[in-house]
Structure formats: C-alpha cells, structure tokens
Design goal:
By secondary structure, the protein is of the alpha/beta class. Helix content is 31%, strand content 17%. It has two domains: 4-77 and 189-287, 3-Layer(aba) Sandwich (Rossmann fold), CATH 3.40.50.620; 80-177, 3-Layer(aba) Sandwich (Rossmann fold), CATH 3.40.50. Strands 1-2-3 form a three-stranded parallel beta sheet.
Length: 298
C-alpha cells in the first residue's frame, strides 16, 4: 500500500515551532517511506481565521524547502461532503439536536471528562428549548475505543465518561473539526497521520466516526508537544513566535533534535538540500520520545 501522509495547519496565524515539528515529522516519515505528503488547509472555522495567514503559511513552507504532492485541499470548499457524512449518521439515528449552552451544561453536568464537563444528554430525547438555534451531537453510548499509537503506545478511551456526546455541527452552522478531519483523511486516502499529541485525545472520537461511516482508520503517530518556559503549549493563543524563514536550516535542525533524531552539528550550516537529504535518509520515527523535557524555550 502506498504511504500517504499529510500536514494540515489552520490559517489562524503563521506557523510557529510547534507547527514546524508536525510538518517536519510528517514530511520525513512520508519521504522515508517513499510515499506522498499532502497539504490540507483546515480553514473550516472562519471566525478564527487570520487575514493573510493562508499565503503566509505557503510562503513559510516553501522557504523551508517542503514539497507537497498534488493540489492543496481546503476544508472551506468541502461542506457538501461533510453534510453527506452527517446524513449517513442521521440515517443511523445517531444524531440529535441540542440547544444547551456551555453554562447550562456546566450547571447540569456532574461528570468532568478530558475536555471539561461531560454533556449529560439533556436534549437526547427532545431539545429542551423550542425555536432556538441548535447544535447536532452524536450519541456515544458505551463506546470504548482502543488503538495503538505508533509513538504514544496503547490508548484506550471510554467516550461516554471521558468525552460524552460530542458536537458535529455547531449552532452557527459550521461543521466541527472531528467530522471534517475524518471525512478529509478518507477522501484523500491518508494512510498515516503524524501530528501533535495535543490531538491524541481527539483520535478515539475520530475512530468512532470512521467506524460508523465505514471509513478506514489510518495509522496514528502523535509527536510530543513543544512548550514555552511557562509550560504552555506553543500556539497562537500563547503568542508563540512565528518561524523565521531566514533561519530555516537552524530551525529544521532544532526540530530534528526535538524529535529524537541526531543531526550532526555542522548541518545547521549546510544547504537546505543537504539538511533534508540527511533528515529523510536517516529518519527514525521510533526514536521520537513520548514527551520532551525540559520545555522548549523560544
């Protein structure tokens, strides 16, 4: 089977070091396995999108020497596919409307899961508010999902107690990441997903959707998260610095070190072509640690 990997940033700002880690890891793994590396822009959440971020991300990837296969996919152009998937789940009587606000959920739930208060199925049989905007949730009764992550090992999650019935379409009409990523990975034939461990807890939800949509489950590998000096995940929300296209070699070298590879010191000063040649030919995904300490400091 042809290896197909992907990198799927959101255009909520320029790429930072945490983004670069996911790009380097997924790129090297795809190239080492003589596969394809696809680029998908996850721009489904328009309210969070930053003007100009799409073009900035492409310029950064190009300056760092990444080469992707095929056309760039954009989630904002694929709503009809997400709607079809939602219809399949509705026909299986797994979907129901929910008019509860976050405050109402917090006030009524007595169970805290991995993402906060677990939804207590208030609207399962009937939405509690008439003529109100509603989200669409999927029922996860007694669903236990287990999978073997290539880096993090055996993962097991009880969706009902750890997550609860989760939203697939928001009250503002936007589809959620969980549904979109499942539909897109299947449509693009993705066989291997290499991404940050901040998405590890989302994976059982995605596998659950794959099962009911009769879609294949890729091989997952979740790399450790880069954090700042305060212990916070590097992100746009924690004001992580943008990667510097003028220091591409150094930052790729740093990313390889972070990922448990052993790039020679002199490669910091080599050409991008030489650096990528070493990174791809010497790539060892099983050398990536499950977590990294001390924190990466910008």
């Amino acid at each position: 089977m042809l290896y197909i990997g992907r990198f799927a940033p959101s255009p909520t700002g320029p790429l930072h070091f945490g983004s670069l880690l996911a790009a380097v890891a997924s790129y090297c793994d795809a190239q080492f396995n003589q596969g394809k590396w696809l680029l998908r822009i996850e721009d489904i959440d328009k309210p969070r999108e930053m003007a100009g971020a799409y073009d900035t991300i492409l310029r950064q990837l190009d300056a760092f020497g990444f080469e992707w296969d095929g056309e760039i996919a954009r989630q904002s152009q694929r709503n009809n596919y997400y709607e079809k998937a939602l219809t399949i789940l509705q026909n299986k009587q797994l979907i129901y409307p929910c008019t509860c606000t976050r405050k109402e959920i917090a006030d009524s739930s007595n169970l805290i899961g991995i993402d906060g208060f677990v939804y207590p199925k208030t609207c399962l049989n009937q939405a509690i508010k008439e003529n109100s905007a509603f989200a669409l949730r999927i029922c996860v009764d007694d669903a236990v999902i287990a999978f073997q992550d290539f880096i993090q090992g055996q993962i097991r999650q009880n969706l009902q107690t750890d997550v609860g019935d989760f939203v697939l379409k928001r009250t503002d009409g936007l589809f959620t990441y969980q549904l979109a990523v499942v539909v897109d990975d299947a449509a693009q034939g993705v066989t291997n997903v290499v991404r940050g461990a901040d998405l590890l807890n989302s994976t059982p939800r995605q596998i659950y959707l794959q099962q009911f949509l009769n879609l294949p489950t890729p091989i997952y590998a979740h790399i450790p998260i880069a954090r700042n000096a305060a212990g916070e995940k590097l992100s746009k929300q924690t004001l992580a610095n943008s990667i510097d296209v003028k220091k591409a070699n150094l930052q790729i070298w740093q990313a390889l070190k972070f990922l448990g590879q052993q790039p020679p010191t002199e490669l910091q000063f080599a050409s991008l072509q030489e650096l990528w040649h070493w990174a791809i030919t010497q790539w060892q995904i099983d050398a990536i640690p499950t977590q990294v300490s001390p924190f990466f400091q910008q």
